[in-house]
Amino acid sequence: MKLEFFQRKFWTASRQCATLDGKCSISCDDDHINCYLIDNNGFILVAEDSSLTGVFFGEAEGAVMSKLLSMGSFKRVTLYDYQAICRIYAESSDSSSSLLDPYFAFFTTVKWLLTELVIFLMEFNLYSWWHLDVTAQAQREGRTMLVPCDTEYPAFISERTIKETTGNIDCEDCIKSFVIQQIPSSNLFMVVVDNKCDCKEFGPITMDPIEIIRTEDVQTHATHSILRKTLWNVARR
User: Which residues does the UniProt record annotate as the domain Voltage-dependent calcium channel alpha-2/delta subunit conserved region (predicted)?
Assistant: First the structure.
């Protein structure tokens, strides 16, 4: 099923009510409410603003997502990426060095891939040494470079036992109301939010990754842990 067709079906269904005349006293067409269809990980599938499709719900409705987390309707978990790429930058007075940026980014990425293949180098903690060496080089020469790093980022999971929940959010000068209801036999939820109250004091909730800064001892322990897991997986094959 194409997304456009699915969205049309959703809007059609949202305008139908179990009344004698089939009309709704309130619907997603009303100007003072926003309607969303989200999945169990909080990503928007359908919204009145089509540009929000695929966006995490917390970025569009930070206040509501914060309330859902505090109510237990959603829970936050932390995931780790041990093969991430981070960008480092240091200013330089030599503007001509910027011409070499694409080449350095390319060679740095290739170097990282080769390092991933040569697993035994991690036993001697050369990964940590190389990361520091590349960082120092970028700071000396004032380049924007991509380097391997470890990151952590949040993920969100819905509580499937909650079929319907209403909530009110106390803001500075108003109260923001919302309703979330699970779509039967699916992992989808319809969320209706009162948009008359801005709740500007609540910022967006994002899923942006954060680089993990490790000390040398922790880095060595993490490297050895990855090595042991890799060797164990190889031995099982």
Answer: 2-201
